[in-house]
């Protein structure tokens, strides 16, 4: 490679990174807030159930489980039309209109009186959720879960009004969602070249960065199947804990207000679990399963339950692996689509491990989740050793990738219809 090409590559890389950082500074806070609000809307029913939500809607048997799962039926059903729409219309407008729809659907909960209306609204809410890429940032979900708990705690104390306490949860979140949707329509740029915070030169660089896509697909990659199995074993617990987590804590012997406050440290663990391994979740679930509520055990079980939320690292972990270790635009899109399907399937099935006749201890569900967590750990270890083995095999067969020329060749090949399996200069990030 000539000196001029090296200098140009260095300049282009530096300029692109500078533009990316500027875009991040302006858009990430808004995107994180919108996803955090979306997360709160999604789990609001899990807090409302502490305030006679099931009794007021006359839910019996497994109807609450069906209502929880119906959200992900909508999410799954909307995957294809959502991707079709996002490829043909302005993403900013679609996202903002979706947030407005969240708000309307959250407010619609106030008019519900039976199971039929509930599953219709939850299905439509899942359709709206499918527009947003799950897991913008893990920390946002954890932080907004704390806010949701405190909000529910405060609103739950409202009495002697025409509305039930659980209705205020949906009312406040619905109005806030609609307000944010209007804000998104006003402040989110339609395209990079419409971003007012970028100079003309920066707009050109931003457009060029977006245009650097590559094609290629391969469905025989063991890594993809490791990830699919990994996601299934983590989303089965997630589907149940999202809707029944507050009931599990309540089953330890606490009233509804103490349950909300006791749930706060779980959210802190979620927010910080990017640096915490899956082992605390296994240890916590094992402790909850092996103990009962007698004496001081009740508070020990609460501490163990807090540890369970370290499993929250798993979803963004998978998205990060795809971004760093799956090359080829079509292959990455295919892998993402498969992960979202398994993500939805796991969350659909998860609530049904919490059988109504097993309340309030939910022994079967806790035992099942413990097994899923252990299986997740096995998948994680297997995936890591597979990528180490593949890197070593490529180094032995093609030589190590160490020079600027090697890295440049890898980038160039990646942009010419090559997946990570076909690109000999590609190395997995561990």
From TrEMBL:
Superkingdom: Eukaryota
UniProt GO MF annotations: transmembrane transporter activity
GO (cellular component) term, any one: membrane
Chief place of localization: membrane
Annotated transmembrane regions: 27-50, 70-87, 99-124, 136-156, 168-188, 225-249, 261-290, 302-322, 334-354, 366-386
Compartmental location: Membrane
Keyword Transmembrane among record annotations: yes
Keywords noted in UniProt: Membrane, Transmembrane, Transmembrane helix, Transport
InterPro entries: MFS, MFS_trans_sf
PANTHER family: ALLANTOATE TRANSPORTER, PUTATIVE (AFU_ORTHOLOGUE AFUA_1G14700)-RELATED, PERMEASE-RELATED
Protein name per Swiss-Prot or TrEMBL: MFS general substrate transporter
Organism listed in the record: Bimuria novae-zelandiae CBS 107.79
